[in-house]
Design brief:
Aspartate Aminotransferase, domain 2; globular; 3 domains; seven-stranded mixed sheet; alpha/beta; 14 helices; Aspartate Aminotransferase, domain 1
Length: 435
């Protein structure tokens, strides 16, 4: 039975106005409280990035300073990625935008091997199956097609994709494309990027890598992995920028040559058109972009500052800081009786102590109700994920650890608070002495 909004007395507005009464209601201003983002991402946007975002003038998007900022972003991003790839720029949106752009080179019927060891590589594999499905396969199951040309290699949750697993699969299936997530935040596992690249080179396969969670956290240069033809990341994790600004991508000449031969299965995120928007035409930087889309001066300002700060700090130093602080967090939750199954340095994925097993979602919701934004895993098995994106100091890690300890105790867990505090003091004082 359809609802006649005009007859629902509790809705605001005038009855009998000829349109749903709720349309007459103006909601109050939206207030969003400060939250400690302590999950896999988005991270806590750097305050200096927010300042540049809000300080940007109300400028026409074609203003000379906005365009200059785009050119500078393009060159800084090449330094952050560690690449000479000319086709390196930002896709307007989140990491999913960048991934869709990268996967747009996959055509119906293309042979692909995809490696899946967590939630997000699983979604990536679904995207690939949708791209590679024939019309008939897509019509048979539009949202989850069984693409005969795609082989998905499932690696158990909590396990990394090894170079040998990649080698064996590529040797057997001989695909055009291979896909792997570098850091899989669904399970918190780092996959073997070197092994993946080497296997792709040996078998003449073009590698595609989801670097959403590793760029800006790990210290690596993509030009050191020549077996990988396409890379996609996001603005809101290691780069510490705002979501919905610019998601970094980088494509080799080999990738672009393939794309020019086959076309792309997208328009809005077309790699060739978007490169032209960033002033990259026929493999060369040009003075002005030749493809028009409305972009945001605010987004450019924020992205510019995030990249500038990343280069100013240096990836080697930032990567070492992530490793140091993750080790402290890991040790603290293990002292509380948790078992850590991850090996990423920006995220700890854990099982609760045996006496609290099965209460993971309850604990997460308890924390989130207090604006302590930890996350569960989004697929089986249910675990707890605690992240430290842009929380690289003693005060922040101590806050995260103590909030988690209190939450465990609130739910009846046994936590020796004094021992946890002593561990934090010992680890950080030792680090200071070493410096």
């Amino acid at each position: 039975m359809l609802c006649d909004f005009a007859t629902v007395s509790h809705l605001p507005g005038k009855v009998g106005s000829g349109r749903p009464a709720m349309n007459d209601h103006i909601f109050p201003q939206l207030e969003i409280p400060e939250t400690l983002a302590a999950g896999p991402g988005p991270g806590n946007t750097d305050a200096r990035v927010l300042q540049r975002f809000t300080a940007a003038g109300v400028a026409d998007h074609m203003h000379a300073d906005v365009l200059r900022g785009m050119v500078e972003c393009k060159h800084m991003l090449r330094q952050v990625w560690g690449t000479d790839n000319v086709h390196t720029f930002g896709a307007a949106g989140t990491g999913w935008t960048a991934l869709d752009m990268m996967f747009s080179a996959v055509q119906p019927g293309d042979k692909v091997v995809a490696f899946f060891n967590g939630t997000f590589s699983g979604i990536d594999a679904l995207t690939i199956r949708i791209k590679a499905a024939t019309k008939e396969e897509l019509a048979a199951n539009p949202l989850d097609p069984n693409a005969a040309s795609v082989t998905v290699i499932e690696v158990p949750h909590g396990t990394s994709v090894s170079g040998q697993v990649v080698e064996d699969a590529l040797a057997q299936h001989k695909p055009k494309w291979a896909f792997m997530a570098h850091w899989e935040t669904g399970s918190g596992r780092i996959n073997d990027l070197q092994g993946f690249s080497d296997a792709c080179e040996r078998h003449g396969v073009m590698g595609l890598v989801d670097a959403v969670s590793s760029l800006g956290v790990d210290d690596f240069r993509i030009d050191d992995f020549p077996g990988v033809a396409g890379w996609a990341s996001c603005p809101q994790k290691g780069i510490c920028c705002l979501p919905l600004t610019y998601a970094p991508v980088s494509f080799t000449d080999q990738y672009m040559a393939s794309l020019h031969k086959t076309g792309a299965s997208t328009y809005a995120n077309h790699p060739v058109f978007e490169a032209r928007h960033w002033g990259i035409v026929d493999g060369k930087d040009v003075e002005k972009g030749t493809y028009h889309r409305t972009h945001s001066g605010y987004g450019v300002a924020a992205f510019h500052e995030a990249l500038r700060l990343t280069l100013e700090e240096g990836l080697a130093r930032r990567s070492a800081e992530y490793a140091r602080h993750e080790e402290v967090l890991r040790s603290a939750v293990e002292l509380m009786g948790c078992t850590v199954t991850s090996n990423m340095t920006s995220l700890v994925v854990l099982n609760l102590p045996e006496q609290m097993a099965g209460r993971e979602m309850e604990l997460v919701q308890h924390c989130r109700a207090q604006n302590f934004g930890i996350w569960p895993t989004l697929s089986s098995p249910v675990q707890v994920r605690i992240g430290i994106l842009n929380q690289l100091n003693r005060l922040a890690i101590t806050d995260i650890v103590m909030r988690f300890a209190v939450a465990m105790r609130d739910l009846g867990g046994s936590v020796d608070m004094a021992a946890v505090e002593a561990l934090l003091d010992q680890r950080y004082e030792t680090a200071i002495a070493a410096e």
